[in-house]
Amino acid sequence: MENKILVELKAVKSFYRKKQILNGIDLKINKGEFVYLIGKTGSGKSSILKVLYNEMEISEGQGEIVGINLNKLKYSKVHKLRRQLGVIFQDFQLLPDRSVRDNLIFVMKATGWKDSKAMENHAHLTLKQVNLSDVADKFPHQLSGGQQQKVAIARAMINSPKVILADEPTGNLDPESSQEIMNLLSAISKGGTAIIMATHDMVMVKDYPGRVLKCDEGLITELDSIA
Q: pTM for this structure?
């Protein structure tokens, strides 16, 4: 089967507070690929993800993700992009005043779902996929870090996205929880969703093979192997 390109950046440059962060990024990612972005803090890993979910503007170059031209994307249409993306953060970013179920329903409402019963059913099925059916009524503060990150993965999966962007998803977790998260992400990737994961955790990069892109001073280099 021919590879389908889901992400493409061509000579992308980007600035934050007048400082150039990305210095000419070229990137192509196909359906079902698991891609790591590695590199020290400030090397551009998170900025690449921010460009892809339209948190950061492209100053020069061209960007496209899931068939959407990032250069021409209007603010009023950003929800259409985010319906096709899942985003996972290191600090979970769950809504503290809502139950686990309502965290998922909030995302569905924000991306255009209307039917309350359908949202309830879909939230239940998605929590079942990450083995969290029993915590649907709990609040984030009642969960362990690993459980909170699983909820964040469920939230990222809720619209069956073509691409999931994960920014240091194991950064705040113990080794056992990290392995659970990586097993989940690997399974999602094998189902055809492209995963782009920024990480410092080289143990995970070695244990869960994928393409490895090293970020350095706003540029990326593909690595053939990890020493």
A: 0.91
